Fold this protein.
Amino acid sequence: MSDTPSKSFFTEARDFLKDLIIIVAVVMVVRTFFVMPFQINGQSMYESYYDKEFIIVDRFSYQDLPVLGRFREPKRWDVVVFKPWVSKDRKYFIKRVIGLPGETLKIQGGKVFLREENSEDFIELDEAPYLSEANWGKTYVRNDQWEYIYDIPEGKYFVIGDNRQASTDSRTCFSTCSIRENYIDMTMVTGRVLVDLGYFNIKEFSFAHPSVTEDGVPLSTVPRFFSSPGTHNYSN
């Protein structure tokens, strides 16, 4: 028989509570300052990210830290999660950063053009790396082909979903332009997409998507770590 006295119920309960508090504190710190998990709800980023896929959002890069400042400013092509405050039912949006502070964007004829700060010429953006064939040349504003000019204010960003024909985004102020503007700022941004974990189908015990198919075969949404289409290089 051991000489060590067994712990009392009170002692065990206290130790359990202490461990639970530590775990919760660590999780809260990680979620607040480093990474945050999300499940995508909607089709606005097809075919880069699909409905029901799980993603990990990097919160740390955009944190405005005391003394150190912000580690990284949003770049063109970053895919970001943010709160446009449209409604209680749609708290978070996921879109791609297209326009940066101080730039001018033009949408015309289904395509997007950029005029950088201190420049007079518009250059068509190369969106081939992430737009599907169904969305290529189909970037419209309210389904018309007229010219729309967006002068992006300092500190603001212009974001659009990759599924150009089924995305509510900066083109229409995320809902209606009568009550909000076309742009987002850093106070709205939760973070940028870091990892795409795909969707694991428990019933099939595979990454087969439950509702998206290719040639009649369920789409395989395997995790994409460094190959995820979250960022693309831009050059004139």
About this structure: The radius of gyration is 22 Å. Residues 41 and 78 are 19 Å apart (CA to CA). The mean pLDDT is 85. DSSP finds one helix and 15 strands in the chain.
